[in-house]
Amino acid sequence: MQITVPTLSSLQLDGLACVGCGADDTEQQPTGDRSPSGAQLFRCTDADVCRAQRSVNAQFPRLAALRAESAPATAWRSLSLGDVSTIPVAELLKTLGVRVVEVDGELSDDGAAGALSGRVGEATIRIERSLPQADRERVVRALLARISPAAQQYTVKADRPVRMVPARVDGHTVLIDCPAWCTFDHVAEDALFLDDVYHSTDTVTLMAPRVGAEDAPLVNARLNADTFGSDEATRRPLLIIAHEDEALYMTPEQAGVFADGLVAFAESVRALAAQAGGVR
Questions:
Q1: Residue 63 burial (CB count, 10 A)
Q2: DSSP states of 80-136
Q3: Are 43 and 66 in contact (CB under 8 A)?
Q4: What mean pLDDT, rounded, does the chain reach?
Q5: Whole-angstrom distance, CA of residue 96 vs CA of residue 17
Q6: Is 74 strand, coil or helix?
Q7: What are phi and psi of 237, to 5 degrees?
Q8: What is the reported pTM?
Q9: Are 173 and 181 in contact (CB under 8 A)?
């Protein structure tokens, strides 16, 4: 017997998804009915699973429609960062075509909790099997927030306590993983894209006294990390030394060497002042 159900998606009418809930990754069985094209229609074998998926569809109707009619890359372009931070992780994974696998020790040696490789529609997230369940959603969401149609590889570190804070991105409030040293107000500044969100400390400034004038700022420094940026080199915390219109980026190791140089420079300045009779 043929049936015509206008509300079914193309995947459902082609026999590639459950006619009840639209899922394409569950165990299914033939319904005995066929679509107008003659394709056998299928329904989830487990009624409870089907019912749960329908509940999710009702809660997130736009997501269900995107998954039913759109390629993963098209669906990705329609999702906001607010969607990524609130939609159930399992639904995001299905919509974006991402699978999760557990690994033993592959990532922990590098201090990572999770890693993503691939692109929207064909990506794999690796999670350390030892990662506490409470941390897994945070890691997976952080990885999904940076996925794109371009093939790439990146990781989420696991070497510090998790600190989730609100941030404004393109008018949406989302939760981001923020290092303990960051003092930047992510809500006060509305970033246009996630790539524009960065972490920063307060700026420290070296003031220089002047003859016949007020003290003037000579140089300033702050810690910065473009965690969500596309440049791998600036995702890690770097020290920024700024003088007038020039900014120098230093790794923590380079900053340590620079600090030693400043101490030596300070001693030289003190020695010159002593020669002039100003200090002892």
A1: 21
A2: -HHHHHHS-HHHHHHHHTEEEEEESSTTGGGTEEEEEEEETTEEEEEEETTS-HHHH
A3: no
A4: 83
A5: 16
A6: helix
A7: -60, 130
A8: 0.46
A9: no
